[in-house]
Amino acid sequence: MTTSSVLDQRLTLNNGYPMPRLGLGVWKTSNTDAAHSVSQAIQHGYRMIDTAKQYGNEPGVGAGIQDGLLKAGLNRKDLFVTTKVLNGDQGYDSTLRAFEASLKQLRLHYVDLYLIHWPVDGKFIDTWRALEELYRNGQVHAIGISNFDSERLTELLDKTAITPMINQMEFNPLNQEKDLRQVMQLAGIQLEAWSPLGGGAALSNPTITKLATKYQRSAAQIILRWDYQHGIITIPKSTHVERIVANSQINDFTLSDEDVAAIDALDQGKRGLWYDDFAWHNPTNPKALTGDVQAWDDTAKFLQK
Hints:
- This is Oxidoreductase YtbE.
- Keywords: NADP, Oxidoreductase.
- It comes from Levilactobacillus zymae.
- Belongs to the aldo/keto reductase family.
- The chain is an alpha/beta fold.
- The chain has a single domain (about 5-290), classed as Alpha-Beta Barrel (TIM Barrel).
- Helices cover about 40% and strands about 15% of the residues.
- It has helices spanning about 30-45, 60-70, 90-105, 125-135, 150-160, 180-185, 200-205, 205-215, 220-230, 240-245, 255-265, 285-290; strands at about 10, 20, 25, 50, 80-85, 110-115, 140-145, 165-170, 190-195, 235.
- The strands form 2 sheets. It has an 8-stranded parallel beta sheet. Strands 1-2 form a two-stranded antiparallel sheet.
- Strand 3, helix 1 (about 30-45) and strand 4 form a beta-alpha-beta unit.
- The longest helix has 15 residues, at about 60-70.
- The protein is globular and about 55 Å long.
C-alpha cells in the first residue's frame, strides 16, 4: 500500500482530463473565511477547490487562490477549480454571461470544471448547451451537473451531445444514491460527493465511531477513506486548518472489506437536501428567476477593483 498523499492522486474523467480525488469545499463559508481556508489548503497540498456563485464567496475564493498559489510557489495550472451556474442564471445566453462574471470574481481566465448547480426544470437543457459551447471553446476543461436524479440525467443524455463528466451529489454513509450510481456508471459519469461527512448524524453513527476507535482515526477520516475505496471524489468543507490537514491524511490505512460492507449497510436513502425541498427548482417560482445567492457582509472588500 502506498502512503503518498491522497492529495497527489487523480482520477481520469470520461474526456481524459485528470481530476484530484480530494479537495476543499466552501459552502456556507464567508469570503473572509473562504480566502483563509483556500489559501491554507493550497499551502498544505490541496490542489482542488470547489465553490459556486450561490455560495456568495467567489471573490473570497479568488483571493485565497491567488494568495495560496503565491505562498506555495505554484502556478494556476497546478490547481483544479470548480464553480457552478446559479439557478437564476440558467438558460443559454444567461449562462454564458454568468460564466464570464464568475471568472472575474474568481480572478481566473478559465475554470477546470463548470457545473449546473441544480436541474431547473425547463431550463437545464439550454443551460447544458451553453456549457457544451464553453467546453468546445476551451474555456473550461470539463463540464458536469449537480443534484441531478436519474430522470433528469436521462433526459439530459437523450437531448444533448456531450455526456457530463461529473455529477456532484449529496453522498455520505446515510445517503448512498445506489440506484443513481448505477445509471451514472453505465454512462461513464464520475460521482463527486458534497456533504461527504453527512454532518452530525453520520459522524456520530455508532458503526462509524466504532471503526474510528478500531483504526485509531477520526470519524471523518473513516468516512473519507470509505469514499476513497469506492472511487468517489470528495470535497469536505472546513475552515479549521488542523481539520483541513487531517481530512487529507487517509492514505496510510485501509478499511477491510468487512468494514467497508458495514458502512455500506448504513444507507438509509435519506437526503438531507434535495431540490424537491426547494421551490426555486421550478422556473415559474420567483426565486428561480432571481437566484438564491448567500449574502455576506464582507463581500465588498474582496471584489476586483
